[in-house]
Amino acid sequence: MGMTTPPRTLAEALRARDDESLAGLLRARPDLLSPVPNDITQLATRAGTRASVVRALEHLDRFALQTAEALAVAPDPAPYDTLLALLTGDGQDDGTARDDAGTAIRSAAPGALATLREQALVWGENDRLRLVRTARELLAPSPQHPSPTGLGPTVAEATAGMSPGRLQEILTAAGLPATHDPVSAVASLSALFTDRTRMGELLDTAPVEALSVLDRLVWGPPYGEVTPNPTPPVKWLRDRGLLLPVSTRTVVLPREAALHLRAGRAHRVPEPLPPAVVAAATRDPQAVDSAAAGQAFLAVSTVEELLTSWNGGGPPILRAGGLSVRELKRIAAVLDVSEPIAAFWLELAYAAGLLASDGEADERYAPTPAYDDWTELPVQDRWVHLATTWLTATRTAGLVGGQDAKGRALSALGPELDRSAAPEVRHRILALLASLDPGTAPDPETLLARLRWERPLRGASTSAGNTTDLRSRIALWTLNESELLGITGRGALSSQSRALLDSGPAKAAALLAPLIPEPLDHVLLQADLTAVAPGPLERPLADTLSVLADIESKGGATVYRFTPGSVRRALDAGQSAADLHAFLAAHSRTPVPQPLSYLIDDVARRHGHLRIGAASAYVRCDDEAVLNEILADRRSATLRLRRLAPTALAAQIDPASLLEGLREMGYAPAAESAEGDVLITRAGIRRTPLRTPPAPVPEGPPVPGGTLLGAAVRAIRAGDTAATVVHKETDGTAATAGSLPRTTSAETLATVQAAAMTGSAVWIGYVNAEGAASQRVIAPVRVEGGFVTAYDHTADEVRTYPLHRITGVAELADDATT
């Protein structure tokens, strides 16, 4: 595949590559594979489209991008030395620091150029480097799109359309010989601006104020506004062509003059080396692992507490999707965290498939059946599930509370929170943390600087008129979320998280397991109607206690508070007073306090004394005095009760509301069925139908695997062979494939039969059932029944073709297969 002459087009340059190099291009730019190009020419065309070039530029690091920007303002084509001079300068303002920077640039430039070549953004030999036209248009300067380098147009571009008389005036003022040829005049002025000695002499005669004007324009933007009667310094510059007119009120500093003032540099600060990630603190790795493990346990407990609170059904879903601000505040209060942190836990549970919509007409959120499976796992496996979900999720909780492009508020669990860049940023941040020594917590600013260097064009987004670096925001959220989740401990990456990144979930769970405290089977009951759990509790104990008591405080030890409402909740769940006494006696390391026993007995005595059923709703009680008391209470007015019988009241509201209203009044009613039996409400009965977790939103086409890349390269090579093959005309002379070959049916049949007998390849024209014509190189294997079965080099497979769809056939030239 080697070439003896320099390539004249990008297609020729790609054709000269070996298969490994082509596979590298397709791996770096997977959008070129959608669909697989027919041949090299189509691949080159697709690689030069605006959308594909923009995507490729966004994946360049800062120095590779600066190299491309330098080529955009260099002559086309440009030798490597010219490119290097634009990056390092001409040495006229060198100091020690500039010498060091030049050395770094000269070391890094070949790698940056190789990256641009690999991604087909630059082609040609080192003496004739060419930036693809679309990239030059995107990066080259124009009044509508200033160059990232801050350089303006060349003298030739800026003087296009200028009258010969005006050119003569500029030459005369600059001390150049007059010429009536505009081309010679432009060349003479350009030569002056690129000659350091003559340019220096010209600027030595400039007024000080004129040099100040140049200083303001030299690093960009190079455009300035002038009045109809410009000041003397501006007039001096304009007369000598150092400022050239763009319009009646706008002038521009030409590129050649700016490069002289910059000492030949295209960029003020070239950045050949990535910024180093600086350590903010160094901690004991064991302390980091312990802190991360504690936070990992808290993360699992928080998600479990959140979803347990929704066991009976969660909050309603907004019409536009997502959770209301009021519900988010309520959840934050339940979890005792801020609203942004509550939004993070909600989004994590949703992305992990533990939470979803129930799909009912009155749509609400609820735990999924997968949540029950998740709770049965060991703590370390539950954490691994959350951590791996977070790494790959595109749901971005940090956006909650902000606004979308149309000014609408973004709500938790809403439909507009996916950001495809999030997984890449998270992995990159953790990879940078992993590159530090164990126990090292980095300085966040240096992390952000490194991230911006690696992808300087990525992540810019506009929201409500403010331009922000989305990748930097995601990076900051990543640092906070990784600490909440236990990925990091005290700012440093933990050993279990390193294992998760390097070795997988099993190794991470194995490292985390010894750091998780063993669950306890007891609590400490106290006389103030509280119970203290000195550590994590076994699941059956924790489940029952969460129904019988309310969590008052969390931390290393959890404090539970027994209240009449919590005891009634346990009774509603089917427990009896005797069951509760036995449960507490079995699981308390301290004697059951007498006030707690009295509380249980008192609530149990009154529990179910009132019975509520559906009329719309009714209340019945064997004690008439109790019903009289309810009717006399002013607070019962909203319940709209009326007496049906001495022991029964009817209400015009639903049973659930009636239950809630009477409980707020201090009673302990029980719901009953149509048969008069007490209804038992058990925790954990509300679940959604089976749901799959939300799929992450991919960022462009996925990176193809090795098998797909190999097949794609073979298909492109085969298609290119068919498109460029040399075949023999009917008179025996060789000609390059162009239009479809044309032969009679008899000639076609005879030629393919002969090729099948000799095992040779032929070139055919083929029209498919849709009428699309194509050229193919095939090796016939069998010809019968009006069909030819052949190995198609273009498709790299055996196919069968109807003979009547073959427009013609031609033999390959003798050297076509070499």
What amount of the residues lies in strands?
Answer: 5-15%
- What about the largest sheet? 5 strands, mixed
Number of strands: 29
> Structural class, judged by helices and strands?
alpha+beta
Radius of gyration: 39 Å
Distance between the termini: 10 Å
Number of helices: 33
Strand order of the largest sheet: 20-21-19-18-22
Helix content: 40-55%
Described by the principal axes of the CA atoms, the overall outline is extended
Unreliable stretches (pLDDT < 50, length at least 5) are 460-467, 732-737
* pLDDT averaged over residues: 85
Set out the fold topology.
Blueprint: H1 10-15, H2 19-28, H3 40-47, H4 50-58, H5 62-73, H6 80-88, H7 96-118, E1 122-123, E2 130-131, H8 133-139, H9 155-158, H10 164-173, H11 182-194, H12 196-204, H13 208-217, E3 223-225, H14 232-239, E4 244-245, E5 250-252, H15 255-261, E6 279-282, H16 285-308, H17 325-335, H18 339-351, E7 355-357, E8 365-367, H19 369-375, H20 379-392, H21 422-434, E9 440-442, H22 444-454, E10 460-463, E11 466-469, H23 470-485, E12 488-489, E13 492-493, H24 495-502, H25 505-512, E14 524-526, E15 530-533, H26 539-548, E16 550-553, E17 558-561, H27 564-572, H28 577-587, H29 594-606, E18 611-613, E19 617-620, H30 624-632, E20 641-645, E21 648-651, H31 655-664, E22 670-671, H32 706-724, E23 726-728, E24 734-736, H33 745-758, E25 762-767, E26 773-784, E27 787-792, E28 797-802, E29 806-811
Parallel strand pairs: 18-22
Antiparallel strand pairs: 1-2, 3-5, 4-5, 6-9, 7-8, 10-11, 12-13, 14-15, 15-17, 16-17, 18-19, 19-21, 20-21, 23-24, 25-26, 25-29, 26-27, 27-28
